[in-house]
């Protein structure tokens, strides 16, 4: 899950920086002058221009607004996402915007499309020891940007099943988990989002210790991703996809109904709130 080492190569990150510098110089602006016009620190813009740091989504929108580039910088920024997405999951993540339905099971953490920034940052921090704060910020920003698919007029149907362990494990501490479980409860109100919990009482199951994502594409095809803690495999074989769909169906049958799942999430949220008050 390390950042790709593209030193000396043309990457989306360096392309964005070069285009920014070219447009800034064509407008006869210094970095400080541009910083004043868009309302961001000049040192930050300088790092972006040199390809040392990815800009935030808000900053690339500010560049497009200032230069009148009709989404050019946003498009370049979206192209940089591949640099901070694990190689094994890149193909599946890139197809999320083309999905009619997304089915996800996670055995130990809240699914990425339902995560809060604080929760995601803590997962990246502990899963990628030694990674700097700037890279953590970039990874979190990319994950949060993926969640925009739920804001589309015709958002994909999203079915998330979580092992109860994901609710019980205090990632980032009580306050972080309060925010995270509140986020899940809010997401569950969306007409196209279904959230279920597989309780501890069900014991062992076929996807124990791993994760599974199945994307049903608008074209009618399906693509899957099977993950462990530090690796994953993209699945496109119809025979294997049928087996994975069966595994998801079995887990679904063992999970609590939606209303009882919401009740269990609320109970865990209450437990975190009580711990915080102690």
From TrEMBL:
Transmembrane segments: none annotated. PROSITE patterns: HTH_CROC1. Pfam families: DUF5753, HTH_31. Residues 20-74 form the HTH cro/C1-type domain. This is Helix-turn-helix transcriptional regulator. It comes from Streptomyces endocoffeicus. The lineage of its organism: Bacteria, Bacillati, Actinomycetota, Actinomycetes, Kitasatosporales.
